[in-house]
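Branched-chain amino acid ABC transporter permease
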Amino acid sequence: MSTVILLTLTGLGLSALYFLVASGLSLVFGLADVLNFAHGLFLSVGAYATWWAAGNLPGAGADGFGFVLAVAFGVAAGVAVAVLVELIMIRPLYSRTIEQVLVTVGLSLAGVALLQASWGADPRPFPRPQWTQGVTSVLGAKVPNSGLLLIVAAVAVLAALLAFLRYTRYGLVIRAGVENREMVTALGIDVRKAFTLVFAIGGAAAALAGALGGVYFGSVSPSQGGSLLIFAFIVVVIGGMGSVVGSAYAAVAVGLLQQFVNYYGTSGLGDICVVALLAIVLLLRPQGIAGKAATA
């Protein structure tokens, strides 16, 4: 029984990491109709900025408020990069899908190369608060605190996103834009400001995922963002393009499936099962769990 509890909670920790990356990705595609392959770069920027800040920023460190300050610096760096990417590289290409894909893929590759040139290709030990290196006993199972931290962070981000989308003016604009961008534009609302805001939110969530992912894995590497982005795209497609709640459901399904199958089967089989789940969803419900079917 303790093994099942441990696998469930560690699987939910992995699900939380996937959701943090996928939530912004889903919003960006739902509103701006952009497949942002550079989203993993925002994660890497957040991770490396947090890692740098913990050792160099005055007042920051690996424990207590110092770590919170380091994470805040990493999130701010992710937001800054995301906004610059939207303003400089994506905004001129909103009506040119192929060019969007080429630019974001190229930016992702260039970002990884830049990180490798700056800090090397090898993983670097990530500064972790003392508490996250321990375990907590849950019904007899020794659960890593780093996974519990991810779960709490993902729940907080989900609640904040839902509150923002439901109760704020820009949140309502984003929801309306996801449903019918042409109608919102016809009403005289400048959706381009909402595009920039959505990129900023996505960059913040991805950078937070990078910082907490560093705590979870214990290290940071230039390619970490790209590997997590693959599963984030799977989560977005399964959950339904543009649906934050759908991404949350899909992240839980993917994380738990991956964790249980990898434990009870052979290593790597969980990844194959995740791809199989994606294929089944695309065949039976192409719009995803919470997505809406296209109307003629």
